[in-house]
Amino acid sequence: MRADPSRPTGDPEATVSRTGGGASAVDHPFLELARGERDWIRARHLPDGMYELQHRGVGDPRRFELYTSDHRLVRDVLCAWLDGAPGWSESAVWSPVDPAIEELEQVRNELSGLLGGLTMLDDLEAGLDLALARADELMDGFDAAALELPGQP
């Protein structure tokens, strides 16, 4: 979904995405705004009423984060980033994400993607079980004598 065209963003490539859940770090609703792959900001609503904000800029490979319970701060930071307001990141105290934690998150996401494919095997097994149960039903209707071949005792 594209950003609201009635709001000036300073960058026509700004996009908005929202999801309601999934595996891994996306177990809670989040909103992500992005200008390409390296310039983005994400707000995630956590179950205890807290919000997690993360961002990464084009010129800096590090990710920064902050946690707050103030939904107004979240709104203001997201809108300022989207508008390209100068000094938008100085309106809050950001901490760099520990590279070890970032690496663990990447591994978890890769594994959840890999393990997500295993659910296909569960579906295949369930389909096979249904097919065998149906074959049993059909075979129950046959008389064993009718299945005997001529000339066999």
List its salient traits.
disordered N terminus; elongated; six-stranded antiparallel beta sheet; 2 domains; 153 residues; 35% helix; alpha+beta
How many helices? The count is 3
Helix content: 25-40%
Characterize the largest beta sheet: strand count, sense, and whether it forms a barrel.
6 strands, antiparallel
Number of domains: 2
Number of strands: 6
Rg for CA atoms: 27 Å
N→C terminal distance:
72 Å
In the sheet with the most strands, the strands line up as 1-2-3-4-5-6
Structure notes:
By secondary structure, the protein is an alpha+beta fold. It has 2 domains: 15-97, no CATH class; 99-141. It has 3 helices and 6 strands. It has helices spanning 71-83, 99-116, 119-140; strands spanning 15-19, 30-34, 40-45, 51-57, 60-68, 95-96. A 6-stranded antiparallel sheet has the order 1-2-3-4-5-6, with helices on one face. The longest helix has 22 residues, at 119-140. The N and C termini lie far apart (72 Å).
